[in-house]
Prior knowledge:
Elements: H1 2-7, E1 13-15, E2 18-21, H2 29-39, E3 42-44, E4 49-52, H3 64-79
Parallel strand pairs: 1-3, 2-4
Amino acid sequence: MARRAAQGPRPRGRAAAFETRIWWSPGSAAAAILRELQSAGYSSIAKPRRFIVQGKYGPLRDGELERAKAWGAELAQAMG
């Protein structure tokens, strides 16, 4: 058991993380989520992405839905 802990977490699968945010938000929830997934043994298939909303709650800013769809296609391709 101690040997496994020294080697890191057991691989569990692949992961990606995203967030929606207002344009001026500091920090990155998606990066923090991905770090936690990686520490739990998931491998990243993509860098974290941010999609910007209008106002505080949305909807997505013009062009963001298209970016999200393109990222989804990239993820599907990465998954094989």
